Amino acid sequence: MRINMLFSVFIFLLNPTIYIQSGGNMNIDMVISKTNDQRVKNLAIKFSKIFDETEVFVARSPGRTNLIGEHTDYNGCPVFPMAVDRDILAVCSPRDDKKVVIYDYNDAYGYKEFFIQKEIPSSATGDWGNYPKAAVQGLINYYAQTGKIKFDNLNGFNAVITSNIPAAGGMSSSSAFVVLSALLLLGANNINEDKKLLASLMAKSETYVGTQGGGMDQAACLMGLNNHALKIDFNPLRVREVIIPSGYCIVVADTLKKAPKTESALQNYNRRSIECKIATALIKKAFEKEYERIFPITALGDITCERLGLSEAEIDKVLDSALHKNFYYLDEIASILKLSPDAVIQKYCKMKDGQYLDMPPEGFKLYQRFYHVMTEWKRVEKSVLALESGNVKKFGQLMNDSHFSCRDNHEVSCKELDVLTEIARNAGALGSRMTGAGFGGCTVSLIKIDKVMTFIEKVKAKYYDSYLVNNAPELLKNASGDPIFMVYPADGAGIIKGFELE
Ligand code: NG1
Predict the structure, then answer these.
(1) pLDDT tens-digit map of 52-82
(2) Range(s) for CATH 1.20.1440.340 in the chain?
(3) Closest atom, ligand 1, to C-alpha of 441
C-alpha cells in the first residue's frame, strides 16, 4: 500500500470549537510540519500495514509543563502551565461497528481493543487501555446525561499512536492520551464539541483511571497557544494567555525517577487531595462557628472575599486559627466535624477507584497542605503579573519558592527533584522547580536563551554524568532519548482530517 500525501480534503482544527472545514487547497503539510512531518509519515505507514482503510485523519495532543501552581487545581485554585511541542499523535479511521482498536507504533506496547457500550469495563490498573476507555466512557456518560447522542449511535475507530512525551514524567502524557482518544471518537463520528467543555469533561473522565486530578492537564492540552503560557482558573474554566517574554526559554529535565500514577505515587497523590478536602471541611466549620451561618465552601479555591462576602482581614482572622500545625488523627477530625470516624472515612477517604486511602500512621498533615495551596495560589497570581510586566527575575524567584513549598509543605518532591533543581539554579536558571504531580518525573527551569546551551551542558555533567552515576545508577536505565530539552509553548490539541492511503 502506498501512502498518498496529497490529503488536502478537510482540515479539522480545534479552535475554538472542533469543526470540519472544507480545506480547499489548504496544504496539510503546513500543519503536519508543526508536529514533525516524519513522525506522521511513519505512523501512516504503520497504519497502512495494520488496517485496510483509506479514509483516515490525523490527531495531535500535546503534553504540558506546568510553570507554577502545583497541586492547586484539585482545590479549585489557579495554575499556570503551557502546552508544549511534545505530543502524542494518531492516525485514525472510523469503523462502522462499535469496536475501538488502538495500536502503539512501538510494537513492544502491543494493541488494545474494546467495545463502545454503556459501561465499559476497565482493564487492570496501569493498563494503557484504560486511557482511551476513560475518554470514551466520559463522552458516553455526557451524551447520556444530556440526551444529546445515544451510545448506540456512536461508532468505534482504528488508530495507531506514537508519543514523544516522557511517560510518568510530570508532562501529562496520560491526559494528552485521554484528550487524544476523545478527539478520535469525535473525529470518527463527525461530532463537534467546544474545547472548554471537552477539557472539563476529560478532567472528570480521567478519574476512570483512578486519579483525583484537577482540570489543569486537559485544559492546557486543549487550550494551548503558540508562544503563550496559560493562566487557568476553574469553576468556571477560564484561560488567560500570557506571552513568554522573548529572550527566555523553558527547559525540561527528567530526573529519570519514574512516578507512574498506578503505584505508590497514586496513593500519595490521592492522599494530598484527601488532606486538602478534610482541611477545607475543617475551615468551613471554623467560618461557620465564627459567623454562625453556612458558607459556600467546597474547596480551598472558594475562600475568596466575593464568595464569602467577607473582607480579606475577616478571612485571614478565621484562617489564622482554623487549623493547628500538629498532625491530625481521625478521631480529632471526626469530633470537629461531628461525624463518626467511619463517616469521615466514607465521606472523605474514598478514592475514585473505589478503594479507601490507607490511614497515614503519622496522621493527616492538614495545615501543611492548606499552607502550600494558599501560598501557591498567591504565587500564581504574582507570576502572571511578573511575566506580563516583563519581570522575569521575579518570576524565577517565585518558581524557586514554589519548589521549596512543594518540598517542605506539600511533600511531593523527592531527592532527585531537589538535587536537579538545585543543580539547575547553580547552572544559571532564573528559577527551577518540579513540575506536575511530583514524587519523580521532570523539572522545569527558566533560562536566558543565550545561556541555554551552556546550561544544558552543565546540568548534564552534574546530574546525569555525576550525581546519578554515583548515587542512583539504576535510574540511568530509564533514559530513552534526551532527558533534558527545551520546550516551546505550543498550540492545543486538534484533528487534521483528509488523509488518503492507497
Ligand atoms: P501530572 O503531572 O500530569 O501527573 C497531576 C494532575 C494534575 C495536577 C498535578 C499537580 C492528573 C491527571 N493530573 O499532573 O491535575 O493536580 O498533578 O499539580 O491527575
Answers:
(1) 987 888 999 999 999 999 999 999 999 999 9
(2) 263-367
(3) 2
CA distance 122 to 133: 7
Tell me which of 18 and 351 has the higher pLDDT: 351
Q: Is 194 marked active-site?
A: no
Query: What class does CATH assign to 263-367?
Result: mainly alpha
Which of the listed CATH numbers 3.30.70.890, 3.40.50.10490, 1.20.1260.10, 3.10.180.10 matches domain 253-260+392-487? 3.30.70.890
Q: Quick one: which atom of ligand 1 is closest to the CA of 79? A: 18
Q: What is the pTM of this model?
A: 0.89
CATH number of the domain at 17-64+85-223+492-496, out of 3.20.20.140, 3.30.230.10, 3.90.226.10, 3.30.1360.40? Answer: 3.30.230.10
Q: Is 214 in the pocket of ligand 1 (CB under 6 A)?
A: yes
Distance, CA 212 to ligand 1 centroid (Å)?
A: 9
How remote is the CA of residue 339 from the centroid of ligand 1, in Å?
30
Q: What gap in Å lies between CA 185 and CA 199, rounded to an integer?
A: 15
State the Rg of the chain over Cα. Answer: 23
Q: What is the location of CATH 3.30.230.10 in the chain?
A: 17-64+85-223+492-496
Q: Dihedral of CA 261/88/225/432: which sign?
A: positive
Q: Give Dmax over CA atoms of the chain in angstroms.
A: 74
Q: Please state which of the ranges 45-49, 245-249, 349-353, 363-367 shows the lowest mean pLDDT.
A: 349-353
Report the atom number in ligand 1 closest to the C-alpha of 69. Answer: 18
C-alpha cell at 177: 492520551
Choosing from 181, 269, 439, 442 the residue with most ligand 1 atoms within 8 A of its CB, the one to mutate for a pocket test is 269
Question: In this structure, are strands 21-22 and 484-487 parallel, antiparallel, or unpaired?
Answer: unpaired
For cell 538535587, what's the residue?
Answer: 419
